[in-house]
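Attaching the record inline, Q. Sequence:
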Amino acid sequence: MKKLFAKKTLHDLTEESNHHHFKRVLGPFSLTAMGVGAVIGAGIFVLTGLAAREFAGPALILSFVLSGLACIFVALCYAEFASMVPLAGSAYTYSYAALGEVFAWIIGWDLILEYSLASSLVAVGWSHYFVNLIGTFGLHIPVWLTNDYWTLLHHSNGTITHVAPYLFGIPIVMNLPAALVIVVITALLVVGIKESARFNSIIVGVKLAVILLVIFIGWFYVKKENWGNSFSTFAPFGVGGIGTGAAYVFFAYIGFDAVSTTAQEARNPKRDVPIGIIVSLVLCTILYIAVTAILTGMVYYKEINVDAPLADAFARHGMVKVSFFISVGAVAGLTSVLLVLLLSQSRIFWAIARDGLLPECVFAAVHPRFGTPYLSTIIVGVGVAITAGCLPIEEIAKLVNIGTLLAFCLVSAAVIVLRIKDPHHPRAFKCPFVPVIPILGIIACVYMMIRLELFTWIRLFVWLAIGGVVYAAYGRRHSKLAKKHALMAKQNDTLAVRPEGLEV
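Structure, as predicted:
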């Protein structure tokens, strides 16, 4: 039991942050751009349509407010940890210091699921907008190369024999654009963090310009009757629908925590990482609420297009050129999200492997020239490409959300624990009103977890059970912290039995 709940000291974590092979090249602007790059993407360009039509109606505006508040509470907790422990690994590393190894493993395994599936979901959304974009030039990709098997089966009324080729009796169906964009981003991440950050900053500028264009022009086409003239028409699915919508679009905010995974590549992590986390989240929350209001005001919620809601909304009003620019912004924006999420996933693998809980020679290997964890980046890229090419977007989104909410709950709890156990450790940034803010974060996240369907919970428990097997078979036996404690115990035993007066 002592091994399972063994903790790393904050002093040890600070020492570890100074011994690595990453390049410290990221400043506050790059980190904020990374946060915006990760947050503004699938949520604003893809999930708004489905969430409004199926869960909340025009009240999706309030769903984003609820999710945003929960994230702001959690972001303040992340910012405190980032100022204390400038180390890659995000919630995994924080849990190791506050709650112990077994909780760190659970959250690390959970983060693997979160970032991998989030990347897959974004890649599928990217594919929808890319197909829509090239369609404006008269270019078309066969439907069997732009959809997964289940989505194509649904759209073809239960049979795909007339829309997909067969090889040895097996239908050839995959989302090829989604898989290919993952391959390209993976190659960029292997080359280096500085190049990736510069590329991300350019793309973030493009997508922010497009979003501001949507807000400015779209406002003139808003019809107030689309929002309804009473609460029952504004929130056709009731208060519960607002909560369900918040749980679903919560995925839209995944990304601000990704900033903390790059702490060891920040020039001044104790100051710059909290700035990147908080500024990016506040900015993105404001933009989400504004865009959702425009979308549900331009199009009646039951008629919103699911695949490309914003582009379709402007096309309905005859603004084809604006629709084109939205598609360009969506493709660019989703590309930046992919870059940050895949980058974060490889850093999570690196942090876990560095502690011996996964094979270090594979997941913690850093390229001697590029200074990136190249093997874990490639492994992540291959896995995400396969998932994005073969699974439907709706099922991916549900599983991503519950994993993220669980991670946020543990980080909020960890802040309270460390305030009690190590109140005097230097904190460049302090979460205000502890324990009130962390408790509010936990309550909001638990509420949204409850709003998710039972089958989503079952899949989470299955994933955690698989993680338990991996930990028991490998991680527990190779844990560096456990080996360190065993060595110290052996030395203490040797000192205890040494004959009196014997000098060493």
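The first strand starts at residue 166 and ends at 167. The first helix runs from residue 10 to 16.

More tomorrow.
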